[in-house]
Amino acid sequence: MTQNEQLRQHLVKLLRGGQAYRPMNELLDGLTLQEAGKKVQGLPYTIWQQLEHLRFTQHDILDFSRNPSYQEPTWPDDYWPAKEAPESEEQLQQSIEAITHNLEEMIQLVQDACNALFEPFAHGQGQTLLREAMLVAEHNAYHLGQITLLRRLLGTLK
Questions:
Q1: Whose CA, among 8, 68, 137, 155, lies 20 to 30 Å from 37?
Q2: DinB-like domain spans which residues (predicted)?
Q3: Are 143 and 50 in contact (CB under 8 A)?
């Protein structure tokens, strides 16, 4: 196995999580509509707002990584939802499914040997696929940690 192949395997493990913390599917397992929109005293966000921020940002990074005509959204307005709670169980599940789907899309980009890890994107400012994949992993870990903390404070995750 080449070093490039090893790097790609390590990136996939990093993106999927589960090495230093529980995988996303375990952290979100059993999340209810009521729990997702519940405020914790002293914190400025709900689990729903964290999920939607995670979904939007991950999709944005994926779009940047494969779209030469990428248009940058407005920070912070486009990245953070105004609503504190999902409108329905279906909306909550769609958000979680989109996060999972977009994560797998990023993993496919990383696994495809035709995609150079170190070559800067022509439409960027030096960003590479390696950098974007690591950004997704870091961003996901950060916000999944916040979701974990919220669920523990709400008493719904052990």
A1: 137
A2: 21-147
A3: yes
